[in-house]
Model the fold of this input.
Amino acid sequence: MPLFVPKKITGFQVSPPVQGDKSISHRALILGSVFPGITKIIGLNEGQDVMCTQKVLEGLGIKTYPGDDHVLTITSPVALKPKTHLFWMGNSGTTARLMMGVFAGVPETIYLDGDISLRKRPMGRVIQPLTDMGVNVQSRSDRLPMAVTGTHHPRALTYHVPVPSAQVKSCILLAGLFSKDTTTVIESVPTRAHTEHMLQELGYPIQINDNIIRLTGKQTIQKERTIYVQKDPSGAAFWVVGALLLPMSEITLTHVCMDPFRLKYIDILMQMGGNIRITGGEIVIRSSHLHGIHVGSEWASYLIDEYPILFIAASLAKGLSQFDGLHELRAKESNRLEGMMNRLKRFGIETWTHGDSLFIQGQSGHFNDPNIVIDADHDHRVAMSFAILASCTNGCYIKNYDTVSTSFPNFWSYLLFK
Ligand code: S3P
Done:
């Protein structure tokens, strides 16, 4: 049954819930597991994607102990050893690609699979460098399901990452942790840097010089460590845009990860006329009149997860917006370029693509039919984006709305009942 998301009568107010950052949560679990010892993780994301990563690591021998106040303690053995050989990656590209980096150092054959969305996503981008490191990967058309056979000693690699992807970069760095030599990753386009920063914070010897990251494997870190996971700026983005669009809104977000790379969307929304203030670790957002914007391709890797909700902002802003360099949107949980455009058209919004650019004529839609049904198609960010559009206009139905639980299990309870 599709879920009806009605127009919101009051604006967005008080402090909406935001989950722990999803990217940081995956890495906290993985880095807590690949080094023997005890890790306390505070504020882990509670969505199914991160739970998939946790389950896979449990299948490799770590033990987990949930405690009070969102604290998870994990203990990891001297070496990861599969208790099973079949692993489920769910809907999570981050689990699949980062765990393939870990499987590189496990000298057994591991089979992995995922849901129909993940089965469509390109894995050649990690298969190729892992193969160069001596890992054997068997797959059909570089997609899941696949079999990965790692080795005790992956070959070190110097790799220029050909696609802007933090998942690819992280996969190679993780595989490099098992090599006795030095692995170098060179990025021509910057991507989120949580893996290398977390390794550094954990005391692992790693060199980060602008776009070149270098580490030698088989080093150790302290046996006991604590990782604090800040709140997810990409999840917060739905409330930020909702509060800007809906009259009488004012919300304050606290403890959000303030990494400027992840907050680029706030700059974009401010350039669109958004009334947003960042002070002393808080983000305060008030209702605003937005106008269109041209976002160049140089920002694509910074905004990669926020485009769907930025397209909603552009649809209700005054004037034309243009977003360039969007080819990677086609490789997400669904095709977020043509997919978002086609769904926006259902509301009469004038929108079109030209190559890898998307154009949106703001305020061109009609929202007189609340019976439109939007299929989320296994894509949590598509579901949440149209939920915000529906809340700020005249409502709509969302089919397969439960996909939101991959990243944001308490999203609906705040949107519909607060
Ligand atoms: C992620 C990297 C990005 C992003 C994804 C999370 C990560 O994917 O879209 O949601 O945690 O490394 P790509 O590496 O494919 O760009």
The chain has two domains: 3-19+232-417, 22-215. The chain has a mean pLDDT of 97. The two ends are 22 Å apart (CA to CA). The CA atoms of residues 295 and 323 lie 5 Å apart.
